[in-house]
Amino acid sequence: MKKPAPAARPAARLAALVPAVALALSLAACGGPARPSSDEVAEGIQKVFAGTSQEQAMTDEAASCLADALVDSELSDETLTYIANGEDKQKDEADKALTTQIITDNLNECVAP
Fold first, then answer.
1. What digits encode the pLDDT tens for the residues 2-19?
2. Crossing angle of helices 60-71/77-84, nearest 10°?
């Protein structure tokens, strides 16, 4: 027959879990990484266009102009992080459509001939 565990043991186990649960909750409350800055997104835009036929048109000024429009939009932080990392990737189809729309709407203003 097994001996019952001392009464202090369950309490000690619960006490040990408190910091772990608090850490998990605080991380969840943070919501992940912060929204990338316009400068970070501009650098990423230039990475996306590097090696393409549009690379020459994507000057620092053009990338900054498009980045400002993207960061000021309703795009998710996740999509902006992808772009800032130089990835041509979006969180979902809604963000993909919004990214395309923002670039289309601002292309003439941002990329001067």
1. 665 555 454 444 344 444
2. 160
